[in-house]
Protein backbone atom coordinates (compact mmCIF):
# COMPACT_ATOMS: atom_id res chain seq x y z
CA UNK A 1 0.00 0.00 0.00
CA UNK A 2 1.49 3.30 -1.08
CA UNK A 3 0.99 6.56 0.77
CA UNK A 4 1.18 10.20 -0.11
CA UNK A 5 3.79 12.41 1.46
CA UNK A 6 3.38 13.23 5.16
CA UNK A 7 2.91 16.90 4.32
CA UNK A 8 -0.09 16.14 2.12
CA UNK A 9 -1.75 14.11 4.85
CA UNK A 10 -1.08 16.52 7.70
CA UNK A 11 -4.28 17.46 9.57
CA UNK A 12 -5.79 20.63 8.18
CA UNK A 13 -3.49 20.68 5.18
CA UNK A 14 -4.85 21.51 1.72
CA UNK A 15 -5.80 18.63 -0.55
CA UNK A 16 -3.80 18.91 -3.77
CA UNK A 17 -5.51 18.66 -7.15
CA UNK A 18 -5.87 15.15 -8.55
CA UNK A 19 -3.47 15.75 -11.39
CA UNK A 20 -0.84 16.88 -8.89
CA UNK A 21 -1.57 14.14 -6.34
CA UNK A 22 -0.85 11.48 -8.94
CA UNK A 23 2.78 12.60 -8.89
CA UNK A 24 3.26 13.45 -12.55
CA UNK A 25 6.79 13.14 -13.82
CA UNK A 26 8.42 16.55 -13.70
CA UNK A 27 11.51 16.58 -15.86
CA UNK A 28 12.63 19.88 -14.35
CA UNK A 29 12.55 18.41 -10.84
CA UNK A 30 14.50 15.35 -12.01
CA UNK A 31 17.03 17.59 -13.71
CA UNK A 32 17.47 19.64 -10.56
CA UNK A 33 17.95 16.51 -8.45
CA UNK A 34 20.67 15.28 -10.80
CA UNK A 35 22.25 18.73 -11.04
CA UNK A 36 22.69 19.00 -7.25
CA UNK A 37 25.43 16.35 -6.82
CA UNK A 38 27.08 17.37 -10.10
CA UNK A 39 27.22 20.98 -8.94
CA UNK A 40 28.63 19.88 -5.59
CA UNK A 41 31.41 17.94 -7.31
CA UNK A 42 32.28 20.96 -9.44
CA UNK A 43 32.39 23.16 -6.34
CA UNK A 44 34.68 20.64 -4.62
CA UNK A 45 37.00 20.62 -7.64
CA UNK A 46 37.14 24.42 -7.80
CA UNK A 47 37.77 24.87 -4.07
CA UNK A 48 40.42 22.15 -3.99
CA UNK A 49 42.14 23.66 -7.03
CA UNK A 50 42.26 27.03 -5.27
CA UNK A 51 43.82 25.38 -2.22
CA UNK A 52 46.42 23.69 -4.44
CA UNK A 53 47.21 26.99 -6.14
CA UNK A 54 47.57 28.74 -2.78
CA UNK A 55 50.05 26.11 -1.57
CA UNK A 56 52.01 26.07 -4.84
CA UNK A 57 51.17 22.46 -5.69
CA UNK A 58 50.71 21.31 -9.31
CA UNK A 59 46.96 21.45 -9.91
CA UNK A 60 47.02 19.68 -13.26
CA UNK A 61 49.14 16.77 -12.04
CA UNK A 62 46.96 16.26 -8.97
CA UNK A 63 43.73 16.07 -10.94
CA UNK A 64 45.35 13.95 -13.63
CA UNK A 65 46.32 11.44 -10.95
CA UNK A 66 42.98 11.66 -9.15
CA UNK A 67 41.09 10.97 -12.39
CA UNK A 68 43.35 8.13 -13.50
CA UNK A 69 41.46 4.91 -14.13
CA UNK A 70 42.10 2.46 -11.25
CA UNK A 71 43.91 -0.76 -12.00
CA UNK A 72 42.09 -4.09 -11.72
CA UNK A 73 43.51 -4.67 -8.25
CA UNK A 74 42.53 -1.16 -7.14
CA UNK A 75 39.01 -1.71 -8.49
CA UNK A 76 38.56 -4.71 -6.20
CA UNK A 77 39.78 -2.67 -3.23
CA UNK A 78 37.33 0.11 -4.10
CA UNK A 79 34.40 -2.32 -4.35
CA UNK A 80 35.31 -3.97 -1.04
CA UNK A 81 35.70 -0.63 0.72
CA UNK A 82 32.40 0.59 -0.74
CA UNK A 83 30.64 -2.55 0.53
CA UNK A 84 31.75 -1.84 4.09
CA UNK A 85 30.91 1.86 3.83
CA UNK A 86 27.48 1.04 2.39
CA UNK A 87 26.44 -0.80 5.56
CA UNK A 88 27.61 2.17 7.62
CA UNK A 89 25.76 4.70 5.49
CA UNK A 90 22.49 2.73 5.47
CA UNK A 91 22.66 2.50 9.27
CA UNK A 92 23.00 6.29 9.46
CA UNK A 93 20.29 6.80 6.81
CA UNK A 94 17.74 4.86 8.88
CA UNK A 95 18.22 7.35 11.69
CA UNK A 96 18.12 10.31 9.32
CA UNK A 97 14.73 9.24 7.95
CA UNK A 98 13.43 9.38 11.52
CA UNK A 99 15.17 12.75 12.07
CA UNK A 100 17.61 11.01 14.40
CA UNK A 101 21.36 11.60 14.20
CA UNK A 102 22.93 8.24 15.01
CA UNK A 103 26.52 9.35 15.29
CA UNK A 104 27.38 6.19 17.22
CA UNK A 105 27.74 3.73 14.34
CA UNK A 106 31.48 3.59 14.99
CA UNK A 107 30.99 2.29 18.53
CA UNK A 108 28.11 0.02 17.55
CA UNK A 109 30.04 -1.84 14.88
CA UNK A 110 33.12 -2.16 17.12
CA UNK A 111 31.13 -3.85 19.88
CA UNK A 112 29.23 -5.97 17.35
CA UNK A 113 32.34 -7.07 15.44
CA UNK A 114 34.19 -8.02 18.63
CA UNK A 115 31.25 -10.00 20.00
CA UNK A 116 30.68 -11.73 16.66
CA UNK A 117 34.37 -12.62 16.38
CA UNK A 118 34.46 -13.96 19.93
CA UNK A 119 31.34 -16.07 19.43
CA UNK A 120 32.36 -17.25 15.98
CA UNK A 121 35.86 -18.19 17.12
CA UNK A 122 34.44 -20.66 19.64
CA UNK A 123 32.86 -22.62 16.75
CA UNK A 124 29.90 -23.78 18.82
CA UNK A 125 27.97 -24.55 15.63
CA UNK A 126 29.19 -26.22 12.43
CA UNK A 127 29.96 -24.37 9.20
CA UNK A 128 27.08 -22.31 7.79
CA UNK A 129 25.20 -22.39 11.07
CA UNK A 130 28.15 -20.68 12.74
CA UNK A 131 28.03 -17.96 10.05
CA UNK A 132 24.34 -17.41 10.81
CA UNK A 133 25.19 -17.21 14.52
CA UNK A 134 27.87 -14.61 13.77
CA UNK A 135 25.42 -12.51 11.76
CA UNK A 136 22.74 -12.68 14.45
CA UNK A 137 25.23 -11.89 17.21
CA UNK A 138 26.55 -8.85 15.34
CA UNK A 139 23.09 -7.47 14.61
CA UNK A 140 21.84 -8.04 18.16
CA UNK A 141 24.88 -6.44 19.79
CA UNK A 142 24.76 -3.46 17.42
CA UNK A 143 21.03 -3.03 18.09
CA UNK A 144 21.43 -3.29 21.86
CA UNK A 145 24.27 -0.75 21.91
CA UNK A 146 22.23 1.69 19.83
CA UNK A 147 19.16 0.86 21.92
CA UNK A 148 20.84 2.42 24.95
CA UNK A 149 20.77 5.80 23.21
CA UNK A 150 17.19 5.21 22.07
CA UNK A 151 16.06 4.29 25.59
CA UNK A 152 17.77 7.36 27.07
CA UNK A 153 16.02 9.58 24.52
CA UNK A 154 12.49 8.25 25.06
CA UNK A 155 12.72 7.95 28.85
CA UNK A 156 15.01 10.83 29.84
CA UNK A 157 14.98 13.11 26.82
CA UNK A 158 18.74 12.76 26.28
CA UNK A 159 19.84 13.87 22.81
CA UNK A 160 20.94 10.89 20.73
CA UNK A 161 23.89 12.96 19.46
CA UNK A 162 25.34 13.33 22.96
CA UNK A 163 24.57 9.78 24.10
CA UNK A 164 25.94 8.10 20.97
CA UNK A 165 29.16 10.13 21.10
CA UNK A 166 29.65 9.04 24.72
CA UNK A 167 28.79 5.44 23.80
CA UNK A 168 31.46 5.56 21.08
CA UNK A 169 34.09 6.35 23.71
CA UNK A 170 32.72 3.70 26.06
CA UNK A 171 32.70 1.11 23.27
CA UNK A 172 36.34 1.86 22.45
CA UNK A 173 37.31 1.38 26.09
CA UNK A 174 35.24 -1.77 26.62
CA UNK A 175 36.56 -3.47 23.49
CA UNK A 176 40.16 -2.50 24.34
CA UNK A 177 39.73 -3.94 27.85
CA UNK A 178 38.27 -7.17 26.49
CA UNK A 179 41.09 -7.45 23.95
CA UNK A 180 43.60 -7.11 26.79
CA UNK A 181 41.86 -9.99 28.54
CA UNK A 182 42.10 -12.03 25.35
CA UNK A 183 45.80 -11.20 25.02
CA UNK A 184 46.42 -12.35 28.59
CA UNK A 185 45.07 -15.78 27.66
CA UNK A 186 47.28 -16.14 24.57
CA UNK A 187 50.63 -17.84 24.43
CA UNK A 188 53.58 -15.99 25.93
CA UNK A 189 55.65 -14.05 23.41
CA UNK A 190 52.80 -13.62 20.93
CA UNK A 191 52.47 -10.15 19.44
CA UNK A 192 49.11 -10.84 17.81
CA UNK A 193 46.39 -9.45 20.06
CA UNK A 194 42.99 -10.59 18.94
CA UNK A 195 40.19 -13.08 19.25
CA UNK A 196 40.46 -16.67 18.09
CA UNK A 197 40.54 -17.10 14.33
CA UNK A 198 37.30 -18.20 12.73
CA UNK A 199 37.38 -21.82 11.55
CA UNK A 200 37.75 -22.36 7.80
CA UNK A 201 34.15 -23.53 7.50
CA UNK A 202 32.89 -20.25 8.99
CA UNK A 203 34.57 -17.99 6.46
CA UNK A 204 32.74 -16.54 3.48
CA UNK A 205 34.76 -16.98 0.27
CA UNK A 206 35.31 -14.05 -2.01
CA UNK A 207 34.27 -13.63 -5.63
CA UNK A 208 36.69 -13.39 -8.53
CA UNK A 209 34.71 -10.68 -10.33
CA UNK A 210 37.81 -8.90 -11.65
CA UNK A 211 40.17 -11.33 -13.40
CA UNK A 212 43.89 -10.89 -13.43
CA UNK A 213 44.24 -9.87 -9.79
CA UNK A 214 45.10 -11.73 -6.65
CA UNK A 215 42.18 -10.11 -4.84
CA UNK A 216 38.57 -11.12 -4.46
CA UNK A 217 35.40 -9.15 -3.86
CA UNK A 218 33.82 -9.74 -0.45
CA UNK A 219 31.10 -12.39 -0.58
CA UNK A 220 28.98 -10.23 1.72
CA UNK A 221 28.42 -7.79 -1.14
CA UNK A 222 25.19 -9.71 -1.75
CA UNK A 223 24.14 -9.08 1.84
CA UNK A 224 24.78 -5.36 1.29
CA UNK A 225 22.51 -5.43 -1.77
CA UNK A 226 19.83 -7.25 0.24
CA UNK A 227 20.08 -4.74 3.09
CA UNK A 228 19.72 -1.87 0.61
CA UNK A 229 16.62 -3.44 -0.94
CA UNK A 230 15.02 -4.18 2.45
CA UNK A 231 15.75 -0.63 3.58
CA UNK A 232 14.02 0.77 0.47
CA UNK A 233 11.07 -1.61 0.79
CA UNK A 234 10.46 -1.01 4.50
CA UNK A 235 10.81 2.76 4.23
CA UNK A 236 8.72 3.22 1.08
CA UNK A 237 6.33 0.28 0.89
CA UNK A 238 5.20 -0.47 4.44
CA UNK A 239 3.00 1.23 7.00
CA UNK A 240 5.88 1.23 9.46
CA UNK A 241 8.09 3.04 6.96
CA UNK A 242 5.39 5.63 6.33
CA UNK A 243 4.98 6.21 10.08
CA UNK A 244 8.75 6.51 10.41
CA UNK A 245 9.00 9.11 7.63
CA UNK A 246 5.95 10.96 8.90
CA UNK A 247 7.39 11.15 12.41
CA UNK A 248 10.70 12.35 11.09
CA UNK A 249 9.09 15.16 9.09
CA UNK A 250 6.47 16.28 11.61
CA UNK A 251 6.30 14.75 15.05
CA UNK A 252 3.15 16.68 15.96
CA UNK A 253 1.34 15.50 12.82
CA UNK A 254 2.41 11.91 13.54
CA UNK A 255 1.07 12.13 17.09
CA UNK A 256 -2.22 13.51 15.78
CA UNK A 257 -2.41 10.53 13.41
CA UNK A 258 -2.04 8.09 16.31
CA UNK A 259 1.63 7.20 15.89
CA UNK A 260 3.50 6.20 19.04
CA UNK A 261 6.51 8.48 18.62
CA UNK A 262 8.51 7.03 21.51
CA UNK A 263 8.10 3.54 20.10
CA UNK A 264 9.18 4.73 16.66
CA UNK A 265 12.30 6.39 18.09
CA UNK A 266 13.32 3.26 19.97
CA UNK A 267 12.61 0.89 17.07
CA UNK A 268 14.44 3.15 14.62
CA UNK A 269 17.54 3.22 16.82
CA UNK A 270 17.41 -0.57 17.19
CA UNK A 271 17.16 -0.99 13.41
CA UNK A 272 19.96 1.48 12.81
CA UNK A 273 22.16 -0.31 15.32
CA UNK A 274 21.37 -3.72 13.84
CA UNK A 275 22.58 -2.59 10.41
CA UNK A 276 25.59 -0.90 12.05
CA UNK A 277 26.44 -4.30 13.52
CA UNK A 278 27.02 -5.58 9.98
CA UNK A 279 29.67 -2.96 9.15
CA UNK A 280 32.62 -5.00 10.38
CA UNK A 281 31.48 -8.38 9.05
CA UNK A 282 32.91 -8.13 5.51
CA UNK A 283 36.32 -7.62 7.13
CA UNK A 284 35.74 -10.30 9.76
CA UNK A 285 34.33 -13.01 7.51
CA UNK A 286 36.21 -12.19 4.32
CA UNK A 287 39.66 -10.86 5.25
CA UNK A 288 40.84 -10.69 8.88
CA UNK A 289 38.95 -13.70 10.31
CA UNK A 290 39.37 -12.31 13.83
CA UNK A 291 39.05 -9.05 15.73
CA UNK A 292 42.33 -7.46 16.78
CA UNK A 293 43.99 -4.13 17.38
CA UNK A 294 44.48 -3.66 13.63
CA UNK A 295 40.75 -3.84 12.88
CA UNK A 296 39.72 -0.86 10.71
CA UNK A 297 38.27 2.12 12.57
CA UNK A 298 36.45 5.31 11.62
CA UNK A 299 33.93 3.60 9.34
CA UNK A 300 30.95 5.03 11.20
CA UNK A 301 31.89 8.65 10.59
CA UNK A 302 32.43 8.03 6.87
CA UNK A 303 28.93 6.57 6.78
CA UNK A 304 27.46 9.90 7.93
CA UNK A 305 29.05 11.74 5.02
CA UNK A 306 28.02 9.07 2.51
CA UNK A 307 24.41 9.06 3.73
CA UNK A 308 24.34 12.82 3.16
CA UNK A 309 25.89 12.40 -0.28
CA UNK A 310 23.36 9.75 -1.23
CA UNK A 311 20.43 11.69 0.23
CA UNK A 312 19.45 8.59 2.23
CA UNK A 313 18.38 6.74 -0.94
CA UNK A 314 19.85 3.21 -1.30
CA UNK A 315 21.02 3.81 -4.88
CA UNK A 316 22.38 7.25 -4.07
CA UNK A 317 24.16 5.84 -1.02
CA UNK A 318 25.73 3.10 -3.17
CA UNK A 319 27.07 5.69 -5.61
CA UNK A 320 28.30 7.82 -2.72
CA UNK A 321 30.07 4.82 -1.17
CA UNK A 322 31.80 4.01 -4.47
CA UNK A 323 32.88 7.64 -4.91
CA UNK A 324 34.15 7.81 -1.32
CA UNK A 325 36.08 4.55 -1.71
CA UNK A 326 37.49 5.73 -5.04
CA UNK A 327 38.81 8.96 -3.49
CA UNK A 328 40.36 7.09 -0.58
CA UNK A 329 42.09 4.65 -2.93
CA UNK A 330 43.41 7.44 -5.14
CA UNK A 331 44.76 9.13 -2.02
CA UNK A 332 47.09 6.17 -1.51
CA UNK A 333 48.92 6.74 -4.80
CA UNK A 334 48.75 10.56 -4.80
CA UNK A 335 51.92 11.25 -2.74
CA UNK A 336 53.91 8.78 -4.84
CA UNK A 337 52.84 10.20 -8.18
CA UNK A 338 52.79 13.92 -7.40
CA UNK A 339 54.62 14.51 -4.09
CA UNK A 340 51.39 16.12 -2.83
CA UNK A 341 50.18 15.13 0.64
CA UNK A 342 47.18 12.81 0.54
CA UNK A 343 45.36 15.05 3.03
CA UNK A 344 44.16 17.03 0.00
CA UNK A 345 41.66 14.18 -0.51
CA UNK A 346 40.17 14.94 2.90
CA UNK A 347 39.63 18.51 1.71
CA UNK A 348 37.89 17.20 -1.41
CA UNK A 349 35.64 14.93 0.65
CA UNK A 350 34.78 17.60 3.20
CA UNK A 351 34.02 20.31 0.63
CA UNK A 352 32.03 17.82 -1.42
CA UNK A 353 29.79 16.87 1.53
CA UNK A 354 29.27 20.51 2.49
CA UNK A 355 28.50 21.48 -1.10
CA UNK A 356 26.07 18.57 -1.51
CA UNK A 357 24.17 19.53 1.64
CA UNK A 358 23.89 23.15 0.46
CA UNK A 359 22.97 22.13 -3.10
CA UNK A 360 20.24 19.74 -1.96
CA UNK A 361 18.77 22.39 0.33
CA UNK A 362 18.70 24.92 -2.52
CA UNK A 363 17.08 22.35 -4.80
CA UNK A 364 14.55 21.38 -2.12
CA UNK A 365 13.43 24.98 -1.66
CA UNK A 366 13.26 25.56 -5.40
CA UNK A 367 11.24 22.37 -5.92
CA UNK A 368 8.84 23.34 -3.16
CA UNK A 369 8.33 26.73 -4.79
CA UNK A 370 7.69 25.01 -8.14
CA UNK A 371 5.17 22.65 -6.53
CA UNK A 372 3.36 25.50 -4.82
CA UNK A 373 3.15 27.40 -8.09
CA UNK A 374 1.84 24.30 -9.85
CA UNK A 375 -0.84 23.73 -7.22
CA UNK A 376 -1.85 27.42 -7.36
CA UNK A 377 -2.20 27.30 -11.16
CA UNK A 378 -4.30 24.12 -11.09
CA UNK A 379 -6.55 25.40 -8.30
CA UNK A 380 -7.03 28.65 -10.21
CA UNK A 381 -7.90 26.67 -13.34
CA UNK A 382 -10.48 24.64 -11.39
CA UNK A 383 -12.04 27.82 -9.99
CA UNK A 384 -12.13 29.40 -13.44
CA UNK A 385 -13.98 26.56 -15.14
CA UNK A 386 -17.19 26.76 -13.04
CA UNK A 387 -17.24 30.55 -13.51
CA UNK A 388 -17.00 30.18 -17.29
CA UNK A 389 -19.72 27.49 -17.28
CA UNK A 390 -22.06 29.72 -15.26
CA UNK A 391 -21.46 32.64 -17.60
CA UNK A 392 -22.20 30.48 -20.63
CA UNK A 393 -25.47 29.24 -19.12
CA UNK A 394 -26.53 32.81 -18.32
TrEMBL record:
Q: Which GO terms describe its cellular component?
A: plasma membrane
A Pfam family reported for this protein in Swiss-Prot or TrEMBL: BPD_transp_2
Name the InterPro entries for this protein.
ABC_transp_permease
Keywords, ordered alphabetically: Cell membrane, Membrane, Sugar transport, Transmembrane, Transmembrane helix, Transport
User: Where does the protein end up?
Assistant: Cell membrane
One term of GO molecular function: transmembrane transporter activity
Membrane topology of this protein: Multi-pass membrane protein
Transmembrane stretches in the record are: 29-55, 75-96, 131-152, 161-180, 217-235, 265-285, 344-363
What highest taxon heads this organism's lineage?
Bacteria
Protein name from the UniProt record: Simple sugar transport system permease protein
Record lineage: Bacteria, Bacillati, Actinomycetota, Actinomycetes, Micrococcales
